[in-house]
UniProtKB/TrEMBL annotation:
InterPro entries: MFS, MFS_trans_sf. The keyword Transmembrane helix applies. Residues 1-61 are annotated as: Disordered. Keywords: Membrane, Transmembrane, Transmembrane helix. It comes from the Eukaryota. Residues 27-38 have a biased composition (Low complexity). This is Major facilitator superfamily domain-containing protein. The keyword Membrane applies. The chain crosses the membrane at residues 71-91, 111-131, 138-159, 171-190, 197-222, 228-246, 301-328, 340-367, 388-406, 418-441, 448-469, 481-503. Residues 7-19 have a biased composition (Polar residues). It is a multi-pass membrane protein. Gene3D superfamilies: Multidrug resistance protein D.
Length: 518
């Protein structure tokens, strides 16, 4: 082994790192120590060569400074927050809309389901567009069009028109959840990605609770239409942040490129997608679509997403879409509620938010520890399937949380049981999603957005269906049986993760990823 061997990623997904024996854990080199024609190697803080090796161009996102990378990531975060934030924003106004449209609260609540469902095809459509025209224009148009249809929700005069605008809201607003993993792949090195994935996942998984938290407090003083007007303001802010702080991270390191001009016209053409349309050598929309479909046929993507991500996230979405109908009715109702005021309901949303934040803190350190400990025991080799060990603790916590939630409702115990059960369930969702996303990115580093779209697709397909049967299930069998069955389904779904760990390495050899598109 020479003293400058770099980290390599094999075709089967195994990442091998070689440390410079003379440097050991020396301090990292200057940001200017880029690869050169003489074979210089860029190394990380521990003296290990980074993956991937950046080009020598300052326009290469891998060469951007820490501040620039995180500003671009910051421009993405509001869109990720609003993806589900906007959909659950209306969950606290069902009781106000029902009299206006002469409908039951249960029927009005189903306006969320088309919006959740449309996130699936919306995310899938965003992938070919961001591979062809770039990440920035897709992010910009996503936020701008979401703003337009949110205005439509605000002024809608019928349930049908409101629901149609909500469905478009889900369709256009899904893009940040898909683009996020591509941005992380474009800007950050292998050893940095798990923490950034955790942050990105936390932003769209905490959104479903921040939305109704704010909305519930607002309806104390305003009607539901002004309440939705505030949501328009949030989308306006997100659009402005993309315009001001966003940048294009799609970069071809296989060929030299001229340095980008810094003019306003170039910036505008980049934002609108005009510059992306001019760029030659990128794949066509049909090529990306074919790769996207072929990716799902690979069992190491299909098993941990369709069979695990869907069940572990659908019950989380089910709780947030029905929680008001559990806690707002008075104790004398049938079934008995908790008689919460709107203020108390808003405060209850702190439980899932705190659970998600604890999950973010857990994942921030645990996923890096998994990689570091594994590579230390295996002579510097990292196997993607090791990432999946991060699933098991969150799953156990989530199972216990659902059981606690159901038993509290069944026996009408103190509402603290609901809070803890809900928070535990949200910790589980983030912890498991981070591990799955990191695994998928290790397996398909050149197809980050394609793989991310399928993760998002299965997540929302499960969530879409829950609103149609959750309350009927509870009414028929009781909360204890309902949430107990949900926890059993999660436990059974974990078998797909075990299967992926056992056979995943062989699957990756038999069904390698398609050729890189850009």
């Amino acid at each position: 082994m020479t003293d400058k061997e770099i980290t390599q990623t094999a075709s089967d997904g195994v990442v091998t790192t070689f440390q410079d024996p003379e440097k050991g854990a020396a301090s990292p080199p200057s940001i200017n120590s880029l690869p050169s024609s003489s074979g210089a190697v860029r190394v990380g803080p521990d003296g290990t060569a980074v993956v991937p090796q950046p080009s020598s161009s300052p326009d290469d996102p891998l060469n951007w400074g820490w501040k620039k990378k995180h500003i671009v990531l910051l421009a993405l975060i509001p869109g990720c927050l609003l993806s589900d934030w906007a959909l659950t924003w209306g969950s606290s106004v069902f009781e106000l809309q029902a009299p206006e449209w002469h409908m039951s609260v249960k029927d009005v609540s189903q306006s969320m389901s088309p919006a959740i469902f449309m996130q699936g095809p919306g995310g899938l459509l965003a992938v070919p567009l961001c591979q062809r025209y770039g990440r920035l224009p897709v992010l910009f148009w996503s936020q701008f069009l979401s703003l337009i249809v949110t205005i439509g929700c605000t002024v809608a005069r019928s349930y049908d028109s409101f629901t149609a605008c909500r469905a478009l809201q889900g369709f256009f607003g899904a893009a940040p959840q898909v683009i996020g993993m591509s941005l992380i792949h474009d800007m950050f090195f292998f050893h940095e990605r798990a923490r950034k994935i955790n942050l990105w996942a936390a932003s769209f998984l905490i959104g479903p609770y921040l939305g109704p938290f704010f909305s519930t407090l607002i309806v104390l003083k305003l009607a539901w239409r002004p309440d939705f007007a505030v949501l328009c303001g949030f989308y306006g802010l997100s659009t402005i942040m993309v315009m001001v702080f966003g940048d294009e991270t799609l970069y071809d390191r296989t060929k030299p490129s001229e340095q980008k001009p810094k003019t306003m016209m170039y910036r505008l053409s980049l934002l609108l997608g005009i510059e992306g349309a001019r760029v030659s050598g990128r794949p066509g929309l049909w090529t990306v679509f074919k790769h996207q479909c072929s990716l799902l046929a690979r069992p190491h993507l299909f098993f941990p997403t369709a069979f695990f991500v869907m069940p572990i996230t659908m019950w989380t979405i089910g709780i947030v879409s029905t929680i008001t109908q559990f806690v707002l009715p008075p104790p004398q109702a049938t079934p008995p509620g908790y008689g919460f005021s709107y203020v108390a309901l808003a405060m209850l949303y702190w439980a899932p938010m705190l659970g998600t934040l604890v999950g973010e803190l857990w994942g921030h350190y645990f996923n890096d520890w998994l990689v570091a400990s594994y590579t230390k025991r295996h002579s510097g080799k990292h196997l993607p399937e090791n990432r999946l060990n991060g699933v098991y603790v969150p799953v156990i916590v989530g199972i216990c949380g659902l059981v606690l939630f159901g038993e509290t409702l069944q026996h009408h115990l103190h509402w603290v049981g609901l809070a803890f059960g809900w928070g535990m369930n949200c910790f589980s969702t983030l912890g498991a999603m981070t591990a799955i996303s990191a695994y998928v990115l290790d397996c398909f580093p050149d197809h980050a957005s394609l793989a991310s779209a399928w993760i998002n697709f299965w997540r929302v397909i499960g969530g879409f269906s829950v609103a149609y049967f959750q309350l009927d299930w509870v009414a028929r069998n009781g909360p204890s049986v309902t949430f107990g069955c949900q926890s059993a389904i999660i436990a059974g779904a974990t078998a797909s993760v075990v299967a992926t760990q056992v056979w995943g390495k062989g699957w990756r050899k038999i069904w390698p990823a398609p050729a890189a598109e850009n």
